[in-house]
């Protein structure tokens, strides 16, 4: 009976394959894009568009179809790609509006904290206080970026934690994740924007939990420096 | 054309104010550039059309006295803390009402002004300006920061002793008495207003003829059971005193249409909804907005947010309903509108001065203006994350 | 009479006709090599990492003082990644640079396919 079933399965499987072959749907590359590969990626930032115009590049791509921008990308002067990315890191279950509101409230809190400091400090000290929340976010992320990471590797049946250099994108992602995780570790009564604002300000001053986490990682990497060669052999 | 020459004239006169203002500011902080958006005339009693589209600052002690228990909107309160000053833009509706107040005849029944407008145009802030004006011109203030709070978030309910079927809100009433006392205690003790009748609250507790009003207010704060009834009495006494010319009174109620709404979260003993018309506080504040007294000013603001059942239009006839409209009639509707382009620029300059927005290009500002459609609240909101 | 020498030896030679040669594997080299031992030693960024560690230890893990080392490591690593990427792409396409002595198994197989043995 079992043999008969496997036989049946094989036959049906073959049938499926035959069908696909005929329709020619199967594609080995994972290209889920709505747009064919002939479409090129355009730019929505006015300064870049002007650059294209000046360099004459625009003439070349004038007749090539261009992919549209995402719906959260605008050519407004208030648009910042890092802020956009950070919003997506905050987002859970696809609730983008909530994530954006949280980040906006965070920025408001950052601004209020910094402005209160600004108003209460002397004229000389005022110039050193950064009031722009976007700049504070950039600084905080830059300060939390790790250089190395530990990666488990199996050599001779033993798992070694091998220090490995990481790519820019991975490093930026880790920095954002650590800041958000540090902000989420709070009491239930405190709102995320309050804690996140505090974490951002701390990280921008090269303090706080996210920065400490990075330093700890670096120390661990240093302790495991003997295994570093496993990455390259 | 007329408007143009008017605004031109205003420019010239306000230019003088500006020059004067710069000279004084310069002594305080030498590094700061001249501030064209401010006026040094911080006394609203002197505000005229010349000061329009300028900011003036309410002194912290006055702000604390007048608005410690409400009056400033929640967002504005935060701004005051962040900006380390309570500055208000002098706008047309406030100046208009102030000029009417200056010219009215106080031997006649009080003029009633109804502020109306869309959400976030600055009705409450206009009211703040007018309250400050009343304070500066030594008027007794009867101020309700937000009437709807009593009906949507009642803190405690009790059956009224005096009026059968009515509901008292003892804690809310006592809180209002504290607010009233905070705003008026200097003036009350100065004018030495006294009770003109005998009142018996219970077998032992009475207020006899000739007792100072402050004493009765303190009694109400301590014995919250009688607070609602004391508000009733207090308002009658103030009406009487105004009529006799002992004092002049200003009534300022925000969210006035809440009194005429059907919605309420108050329940009676049978768990049935008690509409605002059956709450004793409503009776007191409808009493003071009647036309049967003189030597007073009545300014109320109607707001869409003050009712939960009627929100289709912001016009006073719709919000007040037939009942409220007839109660207020005759009144002078004052439309509070969104910013004009001039006002918007002044506000933007003020925000830049307070570092609320920085390094913003002209194009960016234009974007914000179009996005907020010149609405003060929306503009404030859109500026927060920048 | 001398004894036959063949009778003296312990074992007589097998009769070829009786025991024919049977090749188990084909008698020619395959047109294929396996990639099992093809892993060549890659020039990694080990030296840069060790420099970075030395710097970090010296400065008590303050990266701002080791920005030069960090930069060097990043440049090296991105260079390494891009090199690996191009090599992989070339290998997949089967492009061989003329005079190349270190061929991968894929490249060799491509060659052998073109010039089969026998």
Automatic annotation (TrEMBL), chain A:
Q: Which PROSITE patterns match?
A: RIBOSOMAL_S7
Please give one Pfam family short name. Answer: Ribosomal_S7
A biological process from GO: translation
Gene3D superfamilies linked:
Ribosomal protein S7 domain
Q: Which CDD domains match?
A: uS7_Mitochondria_Mammalian
A GO molecular function annotation here is: structural constituent of ribosome
SUPFAM superfamilies hit by this protein: Ribosomal protein S7
Keywords in alphabetical order, please: Ribonucleoprotein, Ribosomal protein
Q: Identify one Gene Ontology CC term for this UniProt entry.
A: ribonucleoprotein complex
Residue limits of the Small ribosomal subunit protein uS7 domain? Answer: 74-225
Q: Which family does it belong to?
A: Belongs to the universal ribosomal protein uS7 family.
Database matches in PANTHER family: RIBOSOMAL PROTEIN S7 (PTHR11205)
What protein name does the entry list? 28S ribosomal protein S7, mitochondrial
Its source organism is Cephus cinctus
Query: Gene for this protein?
Result: LOC107267853
Automatic annotation (TrEMBL), chain B:
Where mainly located? mitochondrion
Q: Which GO terms describe its biological process?
A: apoptotic process
Mind telling me which InterPro entries this protein's record contains? P-loop_NTPase (IPR027417), Ribosomal_mS29 (IPR019368), Ribosomal_mS29_met (IPR008092)
Keyword terms: Mitochondrion, Ribonucleoprotein, Ribosomal protein, Transit peptide
Q: Span of the secretion signal?
A: none
The question of whether Transit peptide is a record keyword is answered with yes
Q: Which domain of life is it from?
A: Eukaryota
Q: Name one GO cellular component term.
A: mitochondrial small ribosomal subunit
Q: Where in the cell is it found?
A: Mitochondrion
| An MF annotation (GO) of this entry | structural constituent of ribosome
Its family? Belongs to the mitochondrion-specific ribosomal protein mS29 family.
- Protein name in the entry: Small ribosomal subunit protein mS29
What is the native source organism of this protein? Cephus cinctus
From TrEMBL, chain C:
In its UniProt record, which GO terms are filed under biological process?
mitochondrial translation
Q: Which InterPro entries match?
A: Cys_alpha_HP_mot_SF, Ribosomal_mS37_met
Record-level GO cellular component terms: mitochondrial ribosome; nucleoplasm
Stored SUPFAM superfamilies = Cysteine alpha-hairpin motif
According to the lineage, what is the superkingdom?
A: Eukaryota
| Any one GO molecular function term | RNA binding
Q: What is this protein called?
A: Uncharacterized protein LOC107267376
Species = Cephus cinctus (Wheat stem sawfly)
UniProt gene name: LOC107267376
């Amino acid at each position: 009976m079992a043999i008969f079933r496997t036989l049946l399965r094989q036959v049906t499987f073959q049938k499926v394959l035959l069908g696909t072959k005929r329709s020619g749907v199967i594609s080995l590359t994972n290209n889920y894009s709505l747009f064919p590969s002939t479409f090129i990626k355009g730019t929505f930032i006015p300064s870049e568009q002007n650059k294209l115009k000046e360099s004459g590049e625009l003439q070349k791509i004038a007749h090539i179809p261009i992919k549209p921008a995402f719906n959260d990308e605008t050519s407004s002067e208030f648009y910042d790609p890092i802020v956009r990315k950070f919003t997506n890191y905050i987002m859970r279950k696809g609730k983008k509006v909530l994530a954006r509101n949280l980040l906006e409230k965070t920025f408001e809190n950052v601004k209020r904290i910094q402005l209160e400091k600004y108003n209460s400090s002397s004229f000389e000290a005022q110039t050193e206080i950064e009031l722009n929340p976007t700049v504070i976010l950039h600084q905080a992320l830059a300060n939390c970026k790790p250089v190395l990471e530990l990666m488990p590797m199996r050599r001779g049946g033993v798992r070694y934690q091998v220090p490995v250099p990481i790519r820019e994108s991975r490093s930026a992602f880790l920095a954002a994740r650590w800041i958000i995780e540090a902000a989420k570790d709070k009491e239930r009564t405190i709102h995320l924007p309050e804690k996140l604002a505090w974490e951002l300000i701390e990280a921008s001053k090269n303090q706080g939990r996210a920065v400490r986490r990075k330093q700890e990682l670096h120390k661990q990497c240093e302790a495991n420096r003997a295994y570093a060669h496993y990455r390259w052999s | 054309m007329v408007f143009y020459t008017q605004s031109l004239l205003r420019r010239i006169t306000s230019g003088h104010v500006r020059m004067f203002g710069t000279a004084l500011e310069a002594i305080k902080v030498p590094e700061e550039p001249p501030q064209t958006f401010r006026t040094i005339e911080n006394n609203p009693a002197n505000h005229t059309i010349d000061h329009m589209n300028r900011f003036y600052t309410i002194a912290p002690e006055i702000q604390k006295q007048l608005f410690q228990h409400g009056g400033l909107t929640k967002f504005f309160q935060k701004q005051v803390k962040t900006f380390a000053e309570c500055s208000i833009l002098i706008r047309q509706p406030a100046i208009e009402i102030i000029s009417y107040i200056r010219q009215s005849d106080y031997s006649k029944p009080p003029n009633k002004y109804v502020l109306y407008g869309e959400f976030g145009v600055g009705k409450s802030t206009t009211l703040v300006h007018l309250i400050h004006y009343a304070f500066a011109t030594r008027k007794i203030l009867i101020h309700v920061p937000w009437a709807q709070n009593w009906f949507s978030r009642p803190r405690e309910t009790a059956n009224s002793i005096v009026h059968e079927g009515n509901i008292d809100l003892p804690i809310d009433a006592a809180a209002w008495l504290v607010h009233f006392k905070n705003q008026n205690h200097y003036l009350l003790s100065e004018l030495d207003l006294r009770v003109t009748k005998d009142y018996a609250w219970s077998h032992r507790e009475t207020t006899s003829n000739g007792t100072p009003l402050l004493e009765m207010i303190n009694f109400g704060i301590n014995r919250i059971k009688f607070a609602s009834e004391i508000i009733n009495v207090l308002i009658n006494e103030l009406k009487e005193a105004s009529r006799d010319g002992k004092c002049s009174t200003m009534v300022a109620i925000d969210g006035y249409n809440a009194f005429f709404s059907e919605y309420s979260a108050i329940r009676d003993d049978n768990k049935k909804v008690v509409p605002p018309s059956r709450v004793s506080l409503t009776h007191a504040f409808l009493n003071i907005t009647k036309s049967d007294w003189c030597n007073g000013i009545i300014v109320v603001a109607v707001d869409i947010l003050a009712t939960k059942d009627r929100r289709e239009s912001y016009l006073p006839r719709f919000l007040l309903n037939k009942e409220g409209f007839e109660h207020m009639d005759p009144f002078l509707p004052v439309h509070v509108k969104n910013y004009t382009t001039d006002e918007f620029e002044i506000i933007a300059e003020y925000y830049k001065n307070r570092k609320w927005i920085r390094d913003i290009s002209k194009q960016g500002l234009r974007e914000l203006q179009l996005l907020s459609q010149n609405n003060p609240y929306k503009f404030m909101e859109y500026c927060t994350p920048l | 009479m001398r004894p036959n020498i063949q009778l003296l030896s312990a074992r007589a030679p097998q009769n070829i006709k009786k025991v024919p040669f049977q090749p188990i594997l084909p008698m020619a080299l395959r047109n294929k090599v396996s990639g099992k031992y093809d892993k060549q030693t890659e020039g990694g960024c080990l030296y840069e990492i060790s420099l970075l560690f030395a710097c970090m230890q010296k400065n008590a893990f303050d990266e701002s003082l080791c920005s030069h080392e960090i930069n060097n490591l990043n440049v090296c690593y991105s260079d390494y990644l891009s090199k690996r990427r191009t090599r992989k792409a070339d290998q997949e396409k089967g492009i061989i640079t003329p005079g190349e002595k270190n061929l991968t198994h894929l490249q060799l197989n491509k060659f052998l396919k073109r010039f089969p043995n026998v």
